[in-house]
Amino acid sequence: MLRRLFSAAILISLLHQSNAQGVTPIKRVPLQEALKQINRVFGTNFVYDQDMLKGKTTTYDLQSIRNKSLQEVLKGVLYPNGLVFLYVKQNYYTIVPKERIREQWNPGTVGPDSAAVNMNNTAESAAPGVAWRPVTGVLTDRNGHPISQATVAIRGMSISTVADQDGRFQLQVPDKKGSVLIFSSVGYEPQEIPVREASVINVTMVESSARLQEVIVVGYGVEKKEDLTGAISTVKTEELNENHSSTDVSDMLAGRLPGLYVQKSDGTVGTGSDLKIRGLSTFNNSNPLIVVDGIPDRTIDDLNPTDIEAISVLKDAAAIAVYGARAANGVILVTTRKGRNGKVDITFSSTLIDQSPTFVYKKVNSYEYATLQNEAYTNEGSYNPAFGEGFTPAQVELFKDGTDPNQYPNTNWLKTLTKPHILQSSYNLAASGGSENVKYFLSGGYVTNGGYIPVEYYKRWNLRSNIEANITPNLKVNLNLGGVFSTTNGEGVYGMDYVVQEAFETPPTRVNRFSNGNYAYVPEQRGNAYLQSRGATGFNTNYNNTLTSTMNLQWDIPWIKGLSALGTGAYDKGYVFGKQFAKPYDQYEVDSFGNYTQIPSYPLAPYLNETFTQSASLTLEGSLHYATAFGVNHLSAMALYTQTRATTDLFAAGRQNFVSASLPQLSLGDPTQSTNSGSGTLSTRQGVVGRVTYDYDSRYLLEFSFRDDGSDIFPPGHRFGFFPAISGGWVISKERFFKAGNLAFLKLRGSWGELGNDQVAPYQFLTTYSLVGQQYYGGGYTFGGSNPTFYQSLAPGVLANPDFTWERAIMTNIGIEAHFKRDLITFEADYFRKRTTDILVPPSLQVPGVIGATLPDFNTGIVDNNGFEIALGHHNHIGKVGYYVDVNMSYNHNKIVSYPESQSTPAWQKITGTSAGGFFNSPYPQYVASGPYLGYKSAGLYQTAQDVSSGPTPLFSTVAPGDIKYVDVDKNGAITANDEVVIGNKFFPAVQYGIRFGASFSGIECNVLLQGTADVRGYNTTAQYNLVPGANWLLNRWTPDHTNASYPRLWINYQNNSQGSNYWVVNNAYMRVKNIELAYNFPRKILNRTFKGIRIAISGNNLYTFTKFRWYDPEALSINNTTGGVGNPLLKSFTAGATLQF
Amino acid sequence: MVKNRFYIIIPVVLLLASGCQKHFLDNAPLSQYSDANVWQDSSLISRFIDNIYSNIISNYDFVSNGMLASITDESKVNRNGNIYPINLVNTGQYTAASNLYDSYWQGAGVPNGVYNNVRACNQFFAHLNTMPLSAGTKALLAGEVHFLRGYNYQFLYSLFGRFPIIDTVLGIGENGLYAQRSTDDSCIAYILSDYNAAAAVLPLQYTASTDLGRATKGAALGMEVRLLLNQKQYAAAAATAQTVMNLGVYQLFPDYEGMFYPQNDDNSEVIFNKEYGGDLTGQVNLVDQSESSPFWSGYFGLQDCPTQNLVDQYEMTDGLPYNQSPLYDSTHPYANRDPRLAATVLYDSSVWMGSVMDMTSGSFFNPIADPTPTGYMLRKFLNPGYIFYGNNTNYQNCIILRLAEIYLDYAECELQLGNAEQARTYVNMLRERPGVNMPDIAVGQMTWDAYVRERTVELAFEGERFEDIRRWGTGPQMIGAAIYGMEVNNVGNQHRYQRVLVQQRYFDPKVYLFPIPLAELTKYPAGQVLQQNPGW
């Protein structure tokens, strides 16, 4: 460790020295102070953005300014800081960065000096004889909010004014033809409007192009978009909050960020989407690292979406090397909101959401089901109603005529159980504001969401307090506190998924409720799913309380210009309390004479289980940041040490045989029937991070970064990994030879680096033994016959691998960014190649079972992944109508280059050469350890007996026309297990895209997002089960009279059709109307003084899905989901919401 | 003011310094023991051996997939589809990829694979010399571990036949990993040597009641009898059987029905059993839940249902088969039968847990929703005192070897050796038990068929028939059987009984041995692939 610290120290001292040469004994004063002094001397007022001056200082000798001209002093103070000053009116100057001058006034031709000189002609006035008249107006943004401090100037003259707090301005304009007003403000597109006869000119300002000027949060710092050399995509809060449909932030990211694959397979409330950056590049955990407010491994889904400022997706080595060992799968940076200087801004928003499943399963009725079942038994020659194998014709008739609903019912179980409309509502109250020295953002949010079945619900309270304070001019402190308090309630015994799934798998021939009002016992449901769904079985509630805190102390070291020290401490603490109370209920069975008898329910007596988990994580960081400029050279450097210690502690207790089901407290249970258990974990990491960036005139950009990362999960000697990255950029548009035409900005960039991945089971280098023998978990042994004594027993753990170390990924990235006519058209494209080596994988396919132990991971796998992303944007306004189109598309292709497999595997079953998608989306995840999914290759259905006899010998002698025909891959004349092939190649989408467009017109806004995947397949496991679940696709089965069928002939015991095969692999590409939002911002003039703004919006989510796969939601098929998301369907929703600003 | 600012650097320096904590990353699992702890601690060593006991596979552990009995004509598994692979054997659809018993070769996710247990035994032997135990204790523990390794290999042999003998603790990359299957003779010799080593040191009985259930000398010798008999080494088996019978430890338990009840765990007839705890422990079996009528179990029960074929094997109380006896009344087919029928099978009008069983279709006990496929339900092994969902009963042990089997084994040997009278004596001892009380087989009447019937009835559902059939070569009749059930109908308030063909089963001689799991075969490099059993 010392060695690493030492290297960081050298880096820091080198930087220090290089700077030391430029240090002069003259006193360094913060710019803001200097301006105050100038104001005192000259009586001049300055208008500027506070943030712009942050950290800027001057060494200009302020003692003797009385003898100098104002212009001279301002030049001396501002120019070295890259700032220029513009004359506004007598004794008023505005201060802006030099870049803005170039853009606003004279693109490409006039340097800052000349622009400033131009403006310095303060005495200039219009030609004599011209009359003057006043023009007034209000400047607002697209949402109707006033823009204060905007500059209004007359073209060709140096006369200008600044809009007041309410965006109002008044200016004397020469009363002549051709007068043009120039409206400009930081962050907005400058506009030129001819005055003509108008005396009132109200202007809607459009957010500035300059997405290039955007400051992007990167790992351990911020950088300007313009100067980035890494591949980073960002989404801002406004865009995120277009989607009101979900409680989870990850859901809102779908389709918005190039390179980010968002898949939702689980509609359970409080469960978000699966996120992958640039697809898959390992067969282990491919999840990106989530960093919230600078601290890794926080969760994204319990954040309040309205508290988020921006989310950045870091994709290439240049962007992620600072996260080293955990970054190989990319990084998602979440930044929460901060306060802004100015008057307090209070926002209240509320939305009401109506959700329903995107797809409603269609089931056959009981008569059809009985017929289908008889057909299946008949196909196998085992139709035998006396012993329950099929129904007699009389019984089938009874199902048809429905005269005996108690014994021969027709039940649509899903419909009976579930709610057609699920309501969600959310309320947020936020206040932000601040003064020069203290800024704050405070918010509270509450969201509640019902469940698919009534007993289920999710509630969440969020609190946030982000405070920033300047303790002294050099010392700044930041304190971000976040609290999440959520409650999830589910069914008491089996859980929601299970209850709905069991109901789904229950044939319509089972009765739910008898005509006498009693509920029926249904064997498939271990009771009665309806009662379970209504809470009769009790509840299972989880209370999740998490507090996250981050404190930064930033000290601008006064003796060295540009050097600052930053200390960070983050402490997160979480408590999860779970309470499962299960209780009996009444259910009945009827016999063939119509007699009812009560059937015991599970449980027989109430029981209560409680679990308590405490987790804590402490991260400490210390860093030095340095930035300097010499001429047009800019250099910055950062060195950081970080360490994290995370612990969890768990205990659980339970009692059974409660006397009464009315009170769920542990002490009310039978003390002789109690259980308890507990466990704990500890993990630590430490690392040294460094970064040096250099640019020449913002034209040639260079960056080097590294992380030396240590993790306790690896053995001594293999704990540390060094992960470097180097990147460069060339802003071609800044070259002199570059003709400034429509192409306003053009940048090429490239990066190379090495990253690590350690998301594997820890401590596999140790030989371990566990004491086992817990209720429900097996193990332990009793001796003593009828009077037994129980002993916990000692079970050996995983075999040790002493050489176990990091997975490493080498990433190369090339990118291009172009802006035409500022931001009229923006284009960004990235191409990447990534090779992940040393992938940890157990040699399960090479080491035979006779070893008798669970195998550890070895660093043996290699996966190549490459692909590209394109983002294309068009933002424009025609008259008062603004509109935009943003398209993004991501493509990835991965290939397993090496996998520890057996030599005796036939070529078509080799994993090497196939895709990691087969691991990710295997329909049988429990077998993933032993490789991707194998199955037979189908050649359609056998049509005739001759078809069967002429082909290769089928798997089973029972195969007949209507069964699936398999391909004899090894050409040995018979179908055997040797003919199976790898069929999981496309189980992860190669292409994911988003198309976002919208328009705004005087307060009315419309935003539309389309999202989709292409070149993807899924495994339709549900269909493979015999008769289950009585879905209506069975009606399209093969029969001798219906040979052009999509479904094979029906079966019960025959195995041919339930073999894994690509017959069940379907194209589940889709395009969704992911989001449509229609919003209206009340114009300011009709609001009274109480409100700054009112916005009402309606939106729809997942409104329609274009797909070839029509059985159920195609996205639900894409991840391990054996029943097509029936237990937790994906939802579409309609939303109405309002936002009030005070 | 300036001075104060120096304090601010202190946290930064401290933070950097904290990185110098040398052992910051030296963590280990908080709740697991290491090699160093285990082999120097007599308590942990003892718990390590207990774990091998815990992982023994008993007849009761089969219930989740269906008992071995359902492969034979004793029973029909009451589930359809590929989730219940025993069906696949019955219908001739079982393949090397069917994965029914793969986990018994090596536990995949479950720790009870034979080779996992063998490894544990070998680990024990590898550390034996350095254990801080007295020589006597070491010898005793070694005896138990020898028994356990022999038992596991014998179990493996009974399902798959010849196996690779592993007697060291294998590491990854060792050549021994790709050991081939040994010859039958080597396998048998290896198992016998383990049992002999165990029998040489293990006690006849344990003095402490808390040791009841551990391997004994009788258990090792008794398992040898079964092994030798299945090898048709009749003389050796008979001799060993006599040794066991002469140990003076075991006696027939008078109550055939109650022998399997939890209150009679480890009774005088039991030679070796797998112990189950119940209550809130993890050591439980699922026999009651899986085999009872859904009326009690609250879920699908009736995993394995007795067949008419089995019921027909039970003699009338006059000692004659039902179709030869005047006592048989087709309107009351279960009256006057060998009492072992009532102790083994729930049939129409049986009384069970206080209820009269009604086997008509649509009755509470035999609901249309989930009926028995044969008209019968299993009674043997089930605990009439079991409280479903109550978690408050003592789960019954599973008898692996009992004296009655030794008697029958001995009888079979003597029959094969031509000493029918010797065989008759031991068969009659079973029939004479107070709870059974069937007439003796008369002198000269001890036929092979009578012996087979006696063994079928006595050991019904105990999991031995599959190996018996293999030894007898009667697969076509007993595995490829036509399975019958009893349809019970209500005719004018009277129950009418009608035999119905339930299933015509499929037999191929290859099913005498299960295939080596395909997933295992593919792990061996080309040229070193394990030899598959014939026919698969």
Descriptive terms for the model:
heterodimer; A: 1142 residues; mainly beta; 17 helices; 56 strands; 11% helix; globular; B: 536 residues; mainly alpha
Oligomer status: heterodimer
User: Which pair of chains forms the biggest interface, and how many residues does each contribute?
Assistant: A-B, 130 and 131 residues
Poorly predicted regions of chain A are: 5-25, 102-127, 923-930
Number of helices of chain B: 20
Annotation, overall tally of beta strands of chain B: 11
Which radius of gyration of chain B do the C-alpha atoms yield? 27 Å
Number of helical segments of chain A?
17
Q: Uncertain segments of chain B of ≥5 residues (pLDDT<50)? A: none
Radius of gyration of chain A: 34 Å
Strand-residue proportion of chain A: 35-45%
Give an account of the 3D structure.
The complex is a heterodimer of chains A (1142) and B (536). With 1142 residues, chain A is mostly beta strands. Helices cover 11% and strands 43% of the residues of chain A. Chain A is built from 17 helices and 56 strands. In chain A, the strands form 14 sheets. Chain A has a 22-stranded antiparallel beta barrel. Chain A is globular. The two termini of chain A are 53 Å apart. Helices cover 37% and strands 9% of the residues of chain B. Chain B has helices at residues 2-18, 35-38, 42-54, 86-90, 102-105, 114-127, 135-160, 184-201, 217-230, 234-245, 287-291, 294-297, 308-311, 339-344, 403-416, 420-431, 448-458, 465-472, 475-478, 518-521, and strands spanning 33-34, 75-77, 270-274, 304-306, 345-346, 351-352, 355-356, 377-378, 398-402, 482-491, 494-504. In chain B, helix 7 (135-160) packs antiparallel against helix 8.
